[in-house]
Amino acid sequence: MDVEEAEAALVESYPHLVRMAYLMLPVSLGRHRRVVTAHALAQGALPRTPRVAESAYALVRQEVLRGALTFGEGWKGRLAVVLPPYVWGLRLHPKAGGTDESALDRALAGLGVAARAAYVLRELEGLDGREARGLLEALGAEEARGAVKAAEGVPQGIAGDGEFDPCTVQARPTDLLRRRQHLKAGLIAAGAVAITGVLIAMLGGAPEPYAAGGSPSGTYGGSYRDPGRLVRAKAAAWKDTGRMDFTAWPARGGRTKDEALLRRALAVWASPGKRVQVSATQGTSKGVPSQEPQLLYAGDVDQAAVVLMYDGMRIVRYAEPHGGDGAAALDFARVDGADVTTAAVVVGRTDGNTRFLTAPWVSEARTRDLLGPGRASQGLHRAADGVTDPVRMPGADSTDGVCGSSWPVLQLKAAARLGDSRPFLLTDLGDLVPVHLTYQAQGSAGPIEATGRNALASWARTACHLGSLAGQGVRSVNNWEYADQQLPEANGTAAWVCTRSDTWRGGGRALALFLPPASSATSPAAPVGQSSSDTGACSGYVPQVLAGVLWKSTAGHWYLLAAGSPDVARIKAADGVSGTATGSTMAVPAEQGARAELTGVLDSGDSLTTLR
Question: pTM of the entire structure?
Answer without folding.
Answer: 0.68
